[in-house]
């Protein structure tokens, strides 16, 4: 993901990663994709701004990725998605609920559509 700009004054932006989360999800427009859930890999980069000071060494002082993982799994089980773009946007919206998240990058990859390639989508959202 591109940098969110110079934060100045030693201010740091932390990136929290949720990588290669494998979900079984109804996703796609083709009849074969509607017949059964398919395996999709989800990657999320959370760009977090904790202010001028480094966060304390406590989980409640930082963005806890558990909340996002749980919400993505619930989202995957909730309905069929036509488009990866829609899925990426909904995951980004889940992430941006936390005001400490300055930006998010979400990538989804269908792993089993083609024998020789994975197909995916990526979205970047900033506050």
Contiguous helical run count? 3
Q: Say how many strands there are.
A: 4
Order of neighbouring strands in the sheet with most strands: 1-2-3-4
Query: Low-confidence parts lasting 5 or more residues at pLDDT below 50?
Result: none
The major pleated sheet works out as: 4 strands, antiparallel
| Mean pLDDT reading | 92
Helix percentage range: 10-25%
| Alpha-beta classification | alpha+beta
From the alpha carbons, calculate the radius of gyration and give it in angstroms: 16 Å
Question: What is the terminal-to-terminal distance?
Answer: 15 Å
Give the overall shape, derived from the CA principal axes.
elongated
Tell me the β content.
25-35%
SSE string, helices as H and strands as E: EHEHHEE
Question: Can you walk me through this structure?
Answer:
The chain is an alpha+beta fold. Helix content is 24%, strand content 34%. It contains three helices and four strands. Strands 1-2-3-4 form a four-stranded antiparallel β-sheet, with helices on one face. The longest helix has 14 residues, at 65-78. It is elongated and about 55 Å long. The chain starts with 12 loop residues before the first strand and ends with a strand. The mean pLDDT is 92.
């Amino acid at each position: 993901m591109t940098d969110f700009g110079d934060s100045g004054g030693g201010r740091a932006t932390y990136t929290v990663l949720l990588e290669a989360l494998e979900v079984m999800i109804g996703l796609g427009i083709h009849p074969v994709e509607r017949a059964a859930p398919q395996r999709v890999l989800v990657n999320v980069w959370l760009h977090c701004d904790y202010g001028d000071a480094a966060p304390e060494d406590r989980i409640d002082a930082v963005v806890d990725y558990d909340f996002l993982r749980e919400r993505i799994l619930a989202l995957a089980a909730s309905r069929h998605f036509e488009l990866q773009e829609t899925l990426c946007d909904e995951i980004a919206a889940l992430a941006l609920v936390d005001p400490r998240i300055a930006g998010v990058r979400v990538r989804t990859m269908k792993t089993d559509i083609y024998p020789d390639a994975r197909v995916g989508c990526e979205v970047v959202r900033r506050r």
